[in-house]
Amino acid sequence: MVERVMHANRILAIIVRAGHEAEGIEFFTPDSFSQQLAAMRRPAGHVIEPHVHNPVPREVHLTQEVLFVKRGRMRVDFYDDERVYRESRILATGDVILLAEGGHGFHMLEETVLIEVKQGPYAGEEDKTRYAGIAPNEAILRDPDPCS
């Protein structure tokens, strides 16, 4: 239900499938990531006390993003830092992915609605370098389609 897409001992992405449920709080990301991803399950009546987050200086060198698939189905293609294609995964309604390193591209297999969370502010085209990706028939799926 939780998968780490790896290349050269580095995490390219973390996928949390729709059916995953945590006990208490479960962090999926290492402390070194600038974007933290966790799942929480608390019983009725559990209280999280009101709080504010203190200003803590942080330095971010690489944009990491989280995508929530609200509805639909899509293929995510993973590339290494040298823009070499590595493998693909299918994401479906309710899945969540944290894109940590390397490159990525998306092919919508049906109408897909996403919510994206990442560090800001967005710097437009300065934020990314675009390049040609694989053709659809070149996709290497490492796991079965969760919708089939």
Features:
148 residues; mainly beta; 5-stranded antiparallel sheet; 10 strands; globular
Name the poorly predicted regions: none
- Total strands: the figure is 10
Would you tell me which CATH topology applies? Jelly Rolls
CATH class: Mainly Beta
Q: Separation of termini?
A: 16 Å
Biggest pleated-sheet summary: 5 strands, antiparallel
CATH architecture: Sandwich
Compressed to H and E, one letter per element, the order equals EEEEEEEEEE
Overall number of domains: 1
The rounded Rg comes to 17 Å
Shape: globular
Beta percentage is 35-45%
The main sheet orders its strands as 1-2-8-5-10
Helical residues, percent: under 10%
**Helical run tally:** 0
Structural class by sheet pairing and helices = mainly beta
Q: Mean of residue pLDDT? A: 93
Report on this structure.
With about 150 residues, this protein is an all-beta fold. The chain contains no helices and ten strands. Strand 6 and strand 7 form a beta hairpin. The model has no long low-confidence stretch (mean pLDDT about 95).
What's the topology here?
Elements: E1 2-7, E2 10-16, E3 24-27, E4 38-41, E5 65-71, E6 73-79, E7 85-92, E8 96-99, E9 103-108, E10 113-118
Antiparallel strand pairs: 1-2, 2-8, 3-4, 5-8, 5-10, 6-7, 6-9
